[in-house]
Amino acid sequence: MSTPNRVYIARLAGVAVFDPNGDQVGRIRDAVARVRPTQRPPEVVGLVAEMPMRRRIFLSINRITSIDPDAVVLGSGTLNLRRFEKRPNELLVLQELLDRRVQLDTGQAGSVVDVAMESSRGGEWALTRVAVREQTSRLARRGHLHQVEWDRVRGLGGIADNRGTANLLAVLEDMRPADLANALQDLPDARRNEVAAALDDERLADVLGELPEHDQVEILAALDRERAADVLEEMDPDDAADLLNELPPPEQDVLLDLMEPDEATPVRQLLRYASGTAGSVMTSEPVILPPDATVAEALARIREPQLSPAVAAQVFVTRAPLTTPTGRYLGMVHFQALLREPPADLLGGIVVNDIDPLRPTTPLPEITRRMATYDLVAMPVVDRSMRLVGAVTVDDVLDHSLPRDWRDRDAMATAPAADEETLDGGNG
Asked: Is pLDDT of 137 > 70?
């Protein structure tokens, strides 16, 4: 692999980072440039990479041996794993420049769609060229794209007050919800809310479920109430109930009234349960089938892509009706059992009911103990009439067992962690 003399930074977003042994250590999320007091373009001092467990670290540009559209490769040495913190004289190129409204020296207004960094003969990298798309009132076509020298663009210095979100969303669109939530936490509050509001309802619902409670509440409060209700409808009922629990009761009632009745009903039911109980952490929409359903039908049901792995790991078998609260609970069938049985066999013949189900009032420590004892990823929750009202999954348990601020990047930054990792390139 060779490193080109000029690299457009937006094209690096999401590119994998490899150590000298060829092992992936993270993905590129941004570039860091140092603003100089003179009129010279900012110097690129490194890249920001996202590691496992959402830790963002700084990669010095001097440690990078190769850059291409598919990979960034590090040289041997020591990798600093401390969480990246931007310094006052530094600029995050994608976060702060992408979509910035600027003006060319010809007087033409436009917005930044990409920025190129270029290396000198001495090995120094600097921001040298800017891709700017003209503003146009013509609806039938996009404005002309100019690629011009850094010093031909006005408005790159100082704080951008009026940036759009389209290009930033394009950079973020392929991220997993958890990674996108992580990226949103790095943005200023106003920018974060702007980007969140530009996501479609389903995407925003997924992202909200991965954010700390205070960020969820602030983003929801920035939306108009009708839009907020639409987003809550797209969330899993247990996640929506958790979010609504963070709001004052009058605001809960307003949003629930704005939701479609079919979507609001399971959320209202979950809100009735005391915090820290099975009823408060369960999902009210597990996979439920009747005893006369076949193994083939069950396998088809758990293959539905919108199901989380924990929910899809087992089928709960009940009498009609099949929506919670169901008819009498009969037992459950794990997906591994489904794989071992003939497709035409009925679930009623292979159902397992030798583990007592949970009650809505079962406390979280007891749920954790029983799931660990029986090596389960989900347990049924039934009422006094043995009707299935939901299921507690292992991700529900983890979500409510970890510290309340475990999703908060600032809190994570204070957690003890290894600070360095040696990259020896196989020469050690």
From this structure: no
